[in-house]
Design goal:
The protein has 374 residues and is mostly helical. The protein has one domain. Helices cover 70% and strands 2% of the residues. It has a two-stranded antiparallel ribbon with strand order 1-2. The C terminus is likely disordered. Keywords: Membrane, Transmembrane, Transmembrane helix. One of its GO terms (cellular component) is membrane. InterPro entries: Acyl_transf_3_dom, Acyltransferase_3. One of its GO terms (molecular function) is acyltransferase activity, transferring groups other than amino-acyl groups.
Length: 374
C-alpha cells in the first residue's frame, strides 16, 4: 500500500508479497480439500463454492460499484479522463466478471487502473473455481496415478509459465522513469498477450498446491533431521523474500516479472511457507500468530479491495507534487484506505461471514493438519 501511495520507492519489489499469498492460497485450499476428503471420503463442492462466494463477493461487488461511480464522475467532470469516454465500462465489467488480467493481456490500453488491483483476485477466483473440480475428479479415480498425474501436470505448467516470463521479458517490457510499459500496448502481439498472461503468476497458486501434496509425504512425527532441513529452507525463503522486496527492479536479474532471480525467489516461497506451517513453535511463526497481526489479517481482504479506489483521488493530487506535501498526501490516502478496509470488514464482510460459518460449516477432521481458517 505504501508503494502504491508513492510514499516510498524502496518497496519496488513488494509485488512478491502477492506471490506469497498465491502460494499460500494454493497450499491452504488444497490442504482443506484433502482434510475434507479424509474426514468424509468426499468433497462437497457446492458448500465449497457457497463459502467462497460469501467470503469474497459482497465486499468485492460493493467496491466495484463505488469505483464505477468514481469512473463515471471522472469522465464527466475531469477533462483528462474524458478520453476514456467510449471504453470506461470495460474496466468495471472485467473486474465484475473476474476477467481483469485476461482483458489486460489482450487490450492493455483500454484499462485506466482504478480497478487494476482486481487482477490478482481474478487469478485467485479462477483457481477457486477450477482447482476443486480437478481435485474432485482426480480423487474420484482413487488411483495413485491420479496424484502423480496432478503433480507432473502442475510441474510442467509451472516450468512453462516461468520460462515464458523470462523469454519474453526483454521483447515486451519497457522500463522507463514512469515504471513498466509494454512495447505492444496499442497493438497487442501474441508474444505480449502470452507474456501478460504469464505475468499474472497463476503458476504460483499451482506451486502452492504442489506444496500441499509434498507436506503429506513428510513422515510423522517429524524427525530432528527433517526439522533441520525445514529450518534451513525457511531461512533461504526469508532471504529470497525480503531480498527481492529490497532489490526488485534495482539489480540485474531481479526485474519484475521475468528476471531470472525473481523466478528463484518465487521458488523459495515454498520452503518459507513450509517452515511457517510445520515449525509453529519458531519465533517467526509465533510472532506472525500474534493477535494484533491476526486482527490485521482478518481485515486484509477489505484493505486490499479499497486501498486503490481510496488512493486514486490522492494520486491525482500528487501529480507534479514533491517533497513533504507529496509524502503527507500519500500517507493520508494510505491511512484512509486502511480505515475503509476496516469498515468493510465490520459492516459488509462480517454479516456474511457469520452466515458462512453457521449455515455452511466445513466438516472437521480431528486429526486434520490444517489449522488456518479461510
Amino acid at each position: 500500500m505504501l508503494y502504491h501511495a508513492l510514499v516510498t520507492d524502496f518497496l519496488r519489489g513488494s509485488p512478491i508479497i502477492i506471490d506469497w499469498f498465491f502460494v499460500a492460497s494454493g497450499f491452504l485450499i488444497t490442504t482443506l480439500l484433502m482434510d475434507e476428503r479424509k474426514a468424509t471420503e468426499t468433497n462437497d463442492l457446492r458448500r465449497f463454492y457457497q463459502r467462497r462466494a460469501l467470503r469474497l463477493f459482497p465486499a468485492m461487488y460493493l467496491m466495484i460499484f463505488v469505483s464505477t461511480l468514481m469512473i463515471i464522475f471522472a469522465i464527466n467532470f475531469v477533462p483528462a479522463a474524458q478520453e476514456r469516454l467510449h471504453t470506461w465500462w470495460i474496466e468495471p465489467l472485467a473486474a465484475a466478471t473476474y476477467c481483469y488480467y485476461i482483458v489486460a493481456a489482450f487490450m492493455p490500453a483500454t484499462l485506466d487502473g482504478v480497478l487494476g488491483h482486481t487482477w490478482s483476485l481474478t487469478v485467485e477466483e479462477q483457481f477457486y473455481f477450477i482447482w476443486p473440480l480437478i481435485f474432485f475428479a482426480a480423487m474420484r479415480l482413487r488411483r495413485r496415478s491420479s496424484d502423480l498425474k496432478l503433480i507432473i501436470g502442475s510441474v510442467i505448467f509451472i516450468v512453462v509459465v516461468m520460462s515464458t516470463r523470462v523469454i519474453f521479458q526483454s521483447e515486451i517490457v519497457i522500463l522507463g522513469p514512469d515504471g513498466v510499459t509494454f512495447s505492444d500496448e496499442n497493438d497487442p502481439t501474441w508474444q505480449g498477450i502470452v507474456y501478460r498472461l504469464a505475468s499474472a503468476r497463476p503458476d504460483m497458486i499451482v506451486y502452492g498446491c504442489l506444496l500441499a501434496f509434498f507436506i503429506r509425504s513428510i513422515p510423522r512425527p517429524i524427525t530432528a533431521q527433517w526439522r533441520r532441513w525445514i529450518a534451513i529452507g525457511g531461512a533461504l525463503g526469508w532471504i529470497g523474500f525480503l531480498g527481492f522486496i529490497a532489490l526488485g527492479d534495482r539489480a540485474p536479474g531481479f526485474e519484475l516479472f521475468g528476471g531470472p532471480m525473481y523466478q528463484v525467489c518465487l521458488l523459495l516461497l515454498a520452503p518459507l511457507i513450509l517452515d511457517l506451517y510445520l515449525r509453529q513453535e519458531s519465533l517467526i511463526s509465533r510472532g506472525l500468530a500474534h493477535r494484533h497481526l491476526q486482527w490485521l489479517g482478518q481485515r486484509s481482504y477489505g484493505i486490499y479491495l479499497w486501498h486503490i479506489p481510496v488512493l486514486y483521488p490522492f494520486l491525482a493530487l500528487m501529480d507534479g507534487v514533491f517533497g513533504l506535501k507529496r509524502l503527507v498526501l500519500g500517507l493520508i490516502g494510505a491511512t484512509l484506505g486502511v480505515l475503509a478496509g476496516i469498515a468493510s470488514y465490520r459492516f459488509i464482510e462480517q454479516p456474511f461471514l457469520r452466515i458462512k460459518d453457521t449455515r455452511y460449516k466445513r466438516p472437521q477432521d480431528p486429526q486434520s493438519t490444517s489449522s488456518t481458517p479461510t
